[in-house]
Amino acid sequence: SNKGRLKINPDPLSRMNTYKQDSPDKTEAGGVLLGRFILDSKDKIIDRVTVPMIGDKRTRTRFLRAEKMHQRIITSAWNKSKGTCHYLGEWHTHPERYPRPSSQDIKNWKEMCENNSIV
Q1: Residue 45's pLDDT is what?
Q2: CA nearest neighbour of 31 among 3, 54, 2
Q3: CA dist., res. 21 & res. 19, Å (int)
Q4: Which of 49, 95, 99, 113 falls between 20 and 30 A from 83, CA-CA?
Q5: Catalytic one among 28, 67, 96, 114?
Q6: CA–CA gap between residue 66 and residue 73 (Å, rounded)
Q7: 96 is known as an active-site residue
Q8: In what helix (H) or strand (E) does residue 25 lie, and over which residues does it extend?
């Protein structure tokens, strides 16, 4: 069955790539994914991401998003788009060449799927 496709536009992909943990001194980074639902399909497009901000907590192996700062961007994008730009999820880096989701990542995904109708 068609579970939909996900497209990540070049700008958000490029912004996330700048935070790759490709040296031992780099800490985890993350933010939220913002984008659109394609009418009459299950497809989604990521148009924008937030990046680390003041108040986020970052270590080599952990990223905790400061909710207020990122929420301001989510709300602003929603308002400016007249309700077409949506929060689609979260992203963060891992200090691995081939990142694997942690048990916490998997737990968070399951909770999002259970509690959120946009997934």
Answers
A1: 96
A2: 54
A3: 6
A4: 113
A5: 28
A6: 12
A7: no
A8: none
